[in-house]
Amino acid sequence: MKRRSFLSSALAATALAQAPQGQNRPQRRFDLLIKNGEVRDPGRSVKRKADVAIQDGKIAAVEDSIAADRAYEVIDAKGLLVTPGLVDLHTHVFYGAAFGLHADPIAARSGVTTWVDAGTFSHDMTLGFRKFTVEPSKARIFGFVYTYQNNRNVAADPIKFAKSTMKQTGEAVVNNRDIMIGVKVQVGFNMSGKYSFDIFKIARDICDTFQIPMMAHISFAPPETEEIMPLMRAGDVVTHCYNGHTLGIVEKEAARLKPGVKEARDRGVIFDLGHGLGSFNFAAAKRALDAGFVCDTISTDIYPPNVNGPVFDLPTTMMKMMYLGMSFDDALLRVTANPARIVNSQMVRVPKLGSLEVGAPGDVALLGIEEGQFTLVDSQRNTVTTDKRVVARATICRGKRMHVVA
Ligand SMILES: [Zn+2]
Fold first, then answer.
1. Is residue 119 part of a domain?
2. Which of 28, 90, 139, 345 has the fewest beta carbons under 10 Å from its own?
3. Ligand 1: distance of its center to the CA of 361 in Å?
4. 391 located within any domain
5. Is the residue at 352 inside a domain?
6. Residue 17 pLDDT exceeds 90
7. Ligand 1 centroid vs 240 CA: distance in angstroms?
């Protein structure tokens, strides 16, 4: 019995050895094949015509040409750019909470496959965020926990709340590392009045104690930019960097950075656009660009009062930077590989996120660049006309096409 099985396995081994390589072995078909498109993967400087195949929710092949019959489903991307699924670092997508949008329908029409909720909920709603937003969503969702109470109308002292929940706020991140990145704080007199700098210092304390990243919203002084910048550390994010308000990165009248901004960047602080209803101003952005300061990430700060304008979506926000002179590929880098690095900061949450490398998630955007006359509006309702628009023609997330009617 023993000898027989030895013989049969030896025979089988011979048969295998004799078979020409690649033959007699049924090849598994790809789940999805994107053909005839122009691949743009700026994090790896890839810019070429190629076909992209997806299997089991991951990028399985990127080759000059892949035969259509090797896949169950084929999308013709002729005339389109095939890019990594876009990553929006500043959104509000805890659906049902104040300022929360339902991400999936917007994802389907905008190419955004990864959404970072930048402060919509306090520590006690982290489980709800996981169960009712992250888990049911087709798009990938991550978050920063807020230092404020969920219902900001509650007549409570915000400092008392933030101080008494420091431990819980930090633990909301470290106990949920797979979905939580860090702590979000809003710095600006308009947000928390005379408490603004105190709230910031509490967030600084939490992030130092738990060794986690902070995302700081900046809007109106006091406190001043030069007070905030020295307290930002490598891996922290300053959002709303092109706002036209008093707590910004650039001087009001000149193309000159405010004190401490360049030093913060040199230390490894990330500067994010975060458009929102009040925080993107063409003139401020232009002054910063003229001063040589290009944001690291482009994000929308999308929420219900701005989704129908002036923000609309991430491709529209990219167009605003392109209007100011940024190339499409430079804008694409700031909505793919750059924000993906922050999603994967301190731990790899999604390997190879923001790229189209083999093994990366099967997250792809098919983008078109169209010519015409298009109007763009900033947060202060300044209007410009541009001759190019970026539109998403398809969004694929986790290897599956997302549909506009969710
Ligand atoms: Zn926001």
1. yes
2. 28
3. 26
4. no
5. no
6. no
7. 9
* Cα 255 to ligand 1 centroid, rounded to whole Å: 26
Give me the number of domains the chain comprises: 1
Å from CA of 121 to ligand 1 middle: 11
Q: How far is the CA of 379 from the centre of ligand 1 (A)?
A: 13
Question: What pLDDT shows up at residue 157?
Answer: 78
pLDDT tens across 150-163, in order? 755 555 678 888 99
- Indicate whether 95 pLDDT > 80: yes
Least confident interval from 217-221, 320-324, 372-376: 217-221
SS3 string of the chain? CHHHHHHHHHHHHHHHHHCCCCCCCCCCCEEEEEEEEEEEEHHHCEEEEEEEEEECCEEEEEECCCCHHHEEEEEECCCCEEEECEEEEEECCCCCCCCCCCHHHHHHHHCEEEEEEEEEEEHHHHHHHHHHHHCCCCCEEEEEEECCCCCCCCCCCHHHHHHHCHHHHHHHHHCCCCCEEEEEEEECHHHHHHHHHHHHHHHHHHHHHHCCCEEEEECCCCCCHHHHHHHCCCCCEEECCCCCCCCCCECCCCCCECCCHHHHHHHCCEEECCCCCCCCCHHHHHHHHHCCCCCCECCCCECHHHCCCCCCCHHHHHHHHHHCCCCHHHHHHCCCHHHHHHHCCCCCCCCCCCCCCCCCECCEEEEEEEEEEEEEECCCCCEEEEEEEEEEEEEEECCEEECCCC
Q: State which residues form the domain around 330.
A: 85-343
Going from the Cα of 365 to the center of ligand 1, the distance in angstroms, rounded, reads: 24
What spacing in Å lies between the alpha carbon of 186 and ligand 1's midpoint?
9
CATH number, domain of 100, equals 3.20.20.140
pLDDT band at 29 (very low <50, low <70, confident <90, very high): very high
**What is the rounded average pLDDT of the residues 105-112?**
98
